[in-house]
Amino acid sequence: MVLVELNGGKPAGGVLDSWLEDHEAMTASILGDADGLDAGFGEVVSGYAIVRTDRLAGAVLDRQGRPVFLNLAFKRLFGEAPPELDVALDVLRTRRPRIAAPASPEDDARPAAVIYAPVDQAAGWTLPAEVRAALDRPGAAILAMAVAGIGDGDALDDACRAFRLTPLQTRIAAGLVRTGNVRGAAREAGVAYETARTVVADTMRRVGAPRLSSLIERLVRLSFGIWPEGRDGAGVLSDVWGLTTRQATLALRLAEGQTRARAARASGISESTAKKDLDIAFAALGVRTSAALARAVTEIRALALLTEATHHDVNIGNDFLEPLGLFTRPDGSHIAYSDYGPKGAAPVLVTHSSSASRPAPMTLVRALQAQGFRPLSIDRPGFGLTDPVQDREAHRVDPFAGACPDFVALCEHLKLSRVDIVARGGAQVALALVRRRPDLIGRVVLVNPDPPTRSEQGERGPFAAIKAAFLRRPDLIEKLAGLWVASLGRGQVERVMSQSFGACPPDAAVMSDPGMLADYARGYRMFLTGRIAGYVDEQTAMTRWSTAPLHGLDHWRVLLGGQDVMHDPARTLAFWRATLPDTPIEVLEDGGRFLAMSHPDRIAETLATAPSKSDRAA
Fold first, then answer.
1. pLDDT, position 447
2. SS3 for 51?
3. Which of 47-61, 147-161, 239-253, 405-419 is most confident?
4. Which domain holds residue 247?
5. What is the pLDDT of residues 437-461, one digit of tens each?
6. Number of domains the chain contains
7. Which of 57, 131, 229, 395 has the CB geometry, 3.0–4.6 Å to 148, for a possible disulfide?
């Protein structure tokens, strides 16, 4: 039951640190030595989990296993007596964290597992604030953690709300998680079995889950937080229950919704062999159904992710207030959006830049609401919680046009006939949309729209070095993005922002405000989970992007920051005047790159006073 080391590989900071220390020298090095650009990159981590710490039960024990501190969630699960104390005491002797399975996951009162570790080793884990504070109490020696309350209806509320499940669907989903079967869910929800079957079938369609086990896995996973990319969890299952790698992989595939036959084919074995392996896995986990297996496997993987170092930009704690909505494409993949309301107001889509994701700056959200708008946002393909499209190679040819079907699907999902747009980045998507579906697009304000990525004399700063690298070696964009994620995950965002925007007074003022900095972090923290596919696709496309002029868009507006250090304002102005010859462009001389945060009222007023299509027709 020894816990495997999940975070295999430390963040490789050498190259990025060099950029931050001497970005002019690094830019010169990139331009002079393209072939050696990737030398010294080292190993890059694949991403970190975003953890809902309010979903965690925690206890701190002394050297004899007696409680020093128990949070309320832990007391509800185990009372005053932590389970498997022999494992807890052995942890002190071996100095190795261990996961123990205290009871069958089919017991709806208990979680699937509990993890123990010496407090000094757990000091860097992602923990609830009160548990972290208790690590410093006199006598503190052992940490105990479990995933708490996933079987409770309240714990699933956020996940069910994201899929717009009805109250009945939510109650039955909670019953499914607790009991592992439809009959048990019907009994707990107080409805007939046939009613529950119908409700479950509709819920599976809405969530995009092909089987009951995958429905439970998706809801439990989303209740815990956000999974990092590239983690299958087979090693953890093998270590906790002694499964072979093949048995653990089969269990994971079944939990994620594959049939036994499909899981067998994917593993290159016969179905009869798969059945024998799965029988062993079911017995080892103490479960009888694939639904109960899904819950057990998901909770174990969640616990294992806690062993990663804490990254304050990633740990969302109780700040899970972003109004997440999820719906499915026809192929079952997910599209994520936010609806900030109020629902009766005029809808406006706030698009994100390629270096951010769905969460819109709250200063801009409030300014738009004050002008009578209903702000919406959407993660484009491969960003945030929106899945990449199935044919990624075709998508990479033009990811901006490739984002349009999801926008159309969002309008259909919310029953919107027309939407205004504030593009705080993503101007290329706005252009693609108006070419493909002009009937859906109302007024548009482009905020600091990016020109194509080109080399410019005199550009300075770490971002200039990165742009030079992208132009010189587009094939390295993905690895460079991984390095960037690793650096931000090490808590270097303030240093990066200072180096990049410290010379711009309006941007420096934004970044010096802790609230603004935290608001900015909301937009990029999804990258820290390893979800960089959308960024890579769009940045690659920007090195070759061009567009023909678009005429007749006099109801659009462009706002540019006169002190923008990301792009030369004069070059940006010239490019967009040629691209949008009929669109008024205003340069805000007291603005920099972060106009959406420093000038939200100006942006909202510009949108509100721009002429609509009906005004122009009249």
1. 97
2. strand
3. 405-419
4. 234-305
5. 999 999 999 999 999 876 555 555 5
6. 4
7. 57
